[in-house]
From TrEMBL:
PANTHER family: BLR8190 PROTEIN (PTHR40260). It comes from Prauserella marina. GO terms for molecular function: oxidoreductase activity. Gene3D superfamilies: 3.30.70.100. Pfam families: EthD. The lineage of its organism: Bacteria, Bacillati, Actinomycetota, Actinomycetes, Pseudonocardiales. This is Uncharacterized protein.
Length: 103
């Protein structure tokens, strides 16, 4: 299993971010070939103090090759280019292999 996590910093216009994300960006995600599953949240919290992020997106892929193929595809490039339309606060993208924690 391979995971993608996108962490969005506080945008200049939170209402625009939410509206654009749900109305325009997520429909692109729905048509993205590759992810086994995905989810998002606008309710990012920490156990102590203010959360450093406004929103989070995560997706799972079968393996690193599937992630890279999806990201480098024309559709993946379109998704990446669309981020500038709403993520005015910046974005941190991390991806990594997931180790199974069950014994």
């Amino acid at each position: 299993m391979y995971k993608l996590v996108v962490l969005y910093s506080e945008p200049a216009d939170p209402d625009h971010f939410r509206d654009y994300y749900v109305t325009n960006h997520l429909p692109l995600v729905m048509d993205w070939p590759g992810p086994l599953g995905w989810r998002y949240s606008f309710e990012v919290a920490t156990t102590g103090g203010d959360a450093p992020y406004f929103a989070v997106f995560e997706a799972e892929f079968a393996d690193a090759a599937a992630y890279h193929a999806a990201s480098e595809s024309p559709h993946g490039q379109r998704l990446a280019a669309d981020v500038a339309n709403y993520a005015t606060g910046g974005v941190t993208i991390v991806h990594y292999p997931v180790q199974d924690g069950t014994g």
